[in-house]
Amino acid sequence: MVGRIGGMGRMKIAGPLMAVLALGLAACSPQPAAEATPAAAAEERHPTSNLRIVPVTVRSGSETRLFRTEVANSPEAQARGLMFRTELPDDEAMLFPRDEIAIASFWMKNTPIPLDIIFIGTDRKIINIAAMTTPYSLDPVLSDGPVGAVLEIRGGLAEELGIEPGDTVQW
Predict the structure, then answer these.
(1) What is the rounded average pLDDT of the residues 3-19?
(2) Among 159, 139, 146, residue whose Cα is nearest residue 120
(3) pLDDT confidence of 39, banded at 50, 70, 90?
(4) What is the number of alpha carbons within 13 Å of residue 138 lying toward its C-beta?
(5) Spatial separation of the C-alpha atoms in residues 71 and 87, rounded to whole Å
(6) Which domains does the chain have, with CATH numbers?
(7) pTM score > 0.90 for this model?
(8) Could you tell me the CA-to-CA distances from 17 to 25, 28, 57, 88 in Å, in that order?
């Protein structure tokens, strides 16, 4: 008998507790898709850097080239850049948006692959391209004028694709 009374006592408590839990779970259930916000959508991240990926296009004459581009938007990400990477696929790039509009200086420290460093003005037009930069070099690679962003792609790819100063870059 004692076992049954104890068991029934737990059931009396469990009934109201289960109702509260059920209400709590209903309140936490996902909202319909129509009420979801765009910010809730998952951002695509690069598997190596974990940086956000955005589409970047380069318009050269009648041609438009699309790159899946990592955005190095923190001082740490900009300092690291593409260091230690042993490959950069032709459809990928890294974008360095700049807060300060000024002459840009990059180097190839700890970067084992050649890059084309594309310097972009505030009007989103390419100012100059440092093509086929030397891996591991500590020599500064400079823009020809103040830039609003810098785009890095595989070394030699700008020439192969016909990308040149004056072309427009959008992101």
Answers:
(1) 41
(2) 146
(3) low
(4) 0
(5) 17
(6) 2-36 (no CATH), 40-170 (2.60.120.1140)
(7) no
(8) 12, 17, 57, 56
Residue 10 has a pLDDT of 38
Query: Would you call 167 exposed, middle or buried from its count of C-beta atoms within 10 A (0-12, 13-18, 19+)?
Result: buried
Separation between Cα atoms, residue 32 and residue 92, nearest integer Å: 35
Q: What is the dihedral of CA 153, 158, 163, 168, to 10 degrees?
A: 10
Q: 């072309």: which residue's tokens? A: 167
Distances (CA, A) of 23 to 19, 51, 100, 170: 6, 39, 52, 48
Express each pLDDT in 52-87 by its tens digit. Answer: 999 999 999 999 999 999 999 999 999 999 999 999
Spell out the SS3 assignment of 100-128. Answer: EEEEEEECCCCCCCCEEEEEECCCCEEEE
DSSP string, the chain: -HHHHHHHHHHHHHHHHHHHHHHHHHHHSPPPGGG--GGGSPPPB-TTT--BEEEEEEEETTEEEEEEEEE--SHHHHHHTTTT-S---TTEEEEEEEEEEEEEEE--TT--S-EEEEEE-TTSBEEEEE-SPPTT--S-EEEEEEEEEEEEEETTHHHHHT--TT-EEE-
